[in-house]
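Note to self: keep these together.
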Amino acid sequence: MPAHCDALGVSFGILYGLSYPSINAIIKKSLLYAMHRAIVQKEVNAVRDYEVLYIIDSTLEEEAIKAAVEKFSGLVTANGGAVESVDEWGRRRLAYPIDYKTEGYYVLMNFNSDPEFPKELERNFKIDDTILRYMVTVREATKKAGESA
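Structure:
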């Protein structure tokens, strides 16, 4: 057991009137539990399903829009994820003007990846000037045909 845990055990023993061996046993069990929980949590959260809806500036040419869609799909696969589907909704009127623009090109992409990747994807959306808005969400597991609501 590390030296700082021994010192911690002695100080707790003095404060709470517990014997030194019982404090060390408590500390050892709590450290083992914390390590086990971290390992299990990492295994559970290995891959998640996500969906992202993003709006591209519609004043761009078709080739530039297709390049932007391919860029973000490629970013998912380059970081170990898998793109399940890309649904291009096309040009639509925005609910309110964004940077004096009233139309945008909507894209819905479903993918699965590690839980750390969506932050990287959002960082890339923020950097790209052609993206007007975006939203990344965790998809809920789809229910099987026999399950009731």
